[in-house]
Design a protein that fits this description.
The chain is α+β, with helices and mostly antiparallel strands. The chain contains 5 helices and 5 strands. The protein has a 5-stranded mixed beta sheet.
Length: about 170
């Protein structure tokens, strides 16, 4: 049994070393030229308020933008940002809380140009571990229209639905 423990412990230690090396190469995403290019394509006022984030378990750079006090979702400031990502994969989500709110999410993958001289990269290579070849950039734009907007408002509509539900249960004799 001691041999089984030693084998399992060795596998666990190798996994932890690989995870640590991956954690060390993840911040190099911020040195990828395309990340700066995407960020710098934003208007200066938007760049000043934008946030950039990395998460420990993700090979994605997150750029978060909050745009408040818009006259409508056709506001020139918003459209100027959205046009930068017209050819990216996208989703939108509408929220009808106190003010009209729409979230835009843009995603694209890029080639990850690794620094092959880094210790973390060499460790992953030595361990024959998976080294990501691509990384993602996710740009989230949270757009909030003014509460007193003349062109955009929340409308409440009632409707009645008939729902048919199938219920399954176990019967034992």
């Amino acid at each position: 049994m001691k041999d089984a423990f030693k084998i399992k412990a060795k596998v666990a230690a190798r996994g932890a070393a690989i995870d640590a090396a991956r954690a060390l190469i993840r911040p190099t995403l911020l040195r990828q030229p395309v990340v700066a290019k995407v960020f710098n394509a934003l208007p200066p006022a938007v760049r000043a308020e934008a946030r950039i984030s990395l998460y420990p378990s993700s090979d994605t750079v997150f750029i978060t933008i909050f745009m408040r006090g818009l006259d409508s979702f056709k506001d020139k400031r918003l459209l100027g940002v959205l046009e930068k990502f017209a050819d990216w994969q996208s989703n939108t989500f509408d929220y009808t809380s106190a003010t009209p709110n729409r979230d835009y999410c843009f995603n694209r993958d890029f080639t990850w140009e690794h620094d092959t001289r880094s210790i973390a990269y060499k460790k992953l290579k030595k361990e024959q571990s998976y080294i990501p070849e691509t990384f993602g950039i996710c740009v989230s734009v949270y757009a909030y229209v003014k509460e007193d907007s003349e062109t955009c408002r929340i409308v409440t509509k009632e409707h009645e639905e008939v729902v048919k539900r199938v219920e399954k249960f176990i019967v034992c004799d």
